[in-house]
Amino acid sequence: MEDSQQPPPPPPTTTATNGNDNRPIAIVHYIPIPNLSFFQFISETVNLIHASDSLFSIHRPSARAVVVLGSTPLKSEHLDQYPSVEIVIGTSAGLDHIDLAECRRRNIKVTGAGDAFSEDVADYAVALLLDVLRRVSAADRCVRTGLWPVNREYPLGNKLGGKRVGIVGLGSIGMMVSKRLEPFGCTIAYTSRNKKSHIPYLFYPTVLELATATDALILCCALTDKTHHVVNREVLTAMGKKGILVNIGRGAIVDEKELVKLLVEGELGGAGLDVYEKEPEVPKELFTMDNVVLSPHKAVFTTESFEALRDVVIGNLKAFFSNKPLLSEVNPNN
User: Fold this and answer.
1) N or C: which end of the chain has fewer CB within 10 A?
2) Among candidate residues 91, 41, 88, 43, the one with its CA nearest the CA of residue 66
3) What gap in Å lies between CA 154 and CA 152, rounded to an integer?
4) How many CB atoms lie under 10 A from the CB of residue 121?
5) What proportion of the chain, given as a percentage, has pLDDT over 70?
6) Which residue stretches belong to region Disordered (predicted)?
7) What's the pLDDT band for 155 if we cut at 50, 70, 90?
8) Which H or E run contains 218?
9) Alpha-carbon distance 9 to 307, whole Å?
C-alpha cells in the first residue's frame, strides 16, 4: 500500500459496550480511551470492548479481532495482551504504526483502509500543489489582513499547466494524482518499488533521479525503513530553487530539518505539507512563508471518505468472522 492517510483521532471519553449480545467480540485499540461515536458504525457488526470496560478482562484473552483506531501504535507488547487475536483491522491507509513484522511472525492478518481515502487524498495533493504555485492561501491572508490596499503589487505565482511532476509511490493515490494532473498538461514521471510495465509514465529508479528531472515532487508512498528520510538534502537540492514539494504521505519521509533550512535559505521554491515529523508540532519557521502551505493532516477528511471507510471496515469484519476473503488485506512483507 502506497498511501498514507488516517481517520481523525477521537476525543478521549469512555466506551459504551456491554458484550452481552450475540455479536462477535473485538478489542478496540486506542490510547487514550476513545469516544466511539465517530466509529459507532463498527458496533453494527461486532461488540467493541476497550480496556476501560468492566468486561475487558473477561474477553481480552479470547478476542480474535483487534480494531486499531487511527494511527494508535500497535506493537509487540500490545499484541501480548491479546493472545487469541487472529486479525488486526486498521482504519487508516498508512500502517507504519502497526508492527507488521510481529503480526507476520504471529500469523496475524492485517487490513487497512484500502482505497477508501484515495480519491480525496489525491484531490488534496493537487490542491496543495495548485495552492503553492498560485499562492492562493497567501493571497487570502493578504486580503484578510488588510494588506491589499497597501501592497498593490502582489508577487506573481506560477501556472500548473505544463509542469513536470514526479510522483513518489505510484499506488492507488499516486495513480489518482497522476490522472488529475494529466488534464493540466503536466508531464508525469514516477518512482516506486517496482517499474509498472502497464504504466505509460517515465520511470526513475531513485527519488534523486526523479527530483532532478521534475519541477515538483508529490510524496504518496508509505513510511517504511526504506522510505524514512528518502527525501534528504541531496534530493531537495536537486529539485532546485523553483522546485515544489508536496507531502501527503508521512512527515518522516522527508528530512524536515533540511527542508526547513533550504526553504529559509531560498534554495527551494515552495512546499505544500499535510504531514510532519513530530505531529502536531510544526516548525515555526514555516509559519510566515507565503510559498509554503500548511495543513493539519486532514487530506482524508471528507464525509464521502469515511462512508467508504465504513464499508471497508465492516466488510473486513464480516468477511473474517464468516471465513470469506478479506477486502483489504495488507501484505505484511511491505
Assistant:
1) C
2) 88
3) 6
4) 27
5) 90
6) 1-21
7) confident
8) strand 216-219
9) 16
Cα 18 to Cα 15, 51, 54: the distances in Å are 9, 13, 9
60 a catalytic residue: no
Active site residue 119: no
The Cα–Cα gap between 190 and 172 comes to 13
Average pLDDT (293-322) is: 94
H/E/C letters for each residue in 48-90? EECCCCCCHHHHCCCCCEEEECCCCCECHHHHCCCCCCCEEEE
| Residue 309 main-chain phi, psi, to 5 deg | -60, -40
Helix, strand or coil for residue 132? helix
Distance from C-alpha of 299 to C-alpha of 130, rounded to nearest angstrom: 15
The reply to whether 250 belongs to the active site is yes
| CA R_g for the chain | 22
Q: Which of 44, 182, 279, 307 is the catalytic position?
A: 279
Cβ burial of 330 (10 Å; 0-12, 13-18, 19+) is: buried
pLDDT tens profile 102-124: 999 999 999 999 999 999 999 99
Catalytic member of 29, 50, 135, 250? 250
Look-up: residue for cell 488529475?
Answer: 180
- Give the span between the Cα atoms of 202 and 196, in whole angstroms: 10
Q: Which residue has the cell 532546485?
A: 240
Between CA 33 and CA 14 the distance in angstroms is 6
Tell me which of 7-16, 61-70, 211-220, 302-311 is least confident: 7-16
As a whole number of angstroms, the distance between CA 169 and CA 193 comes to: 8
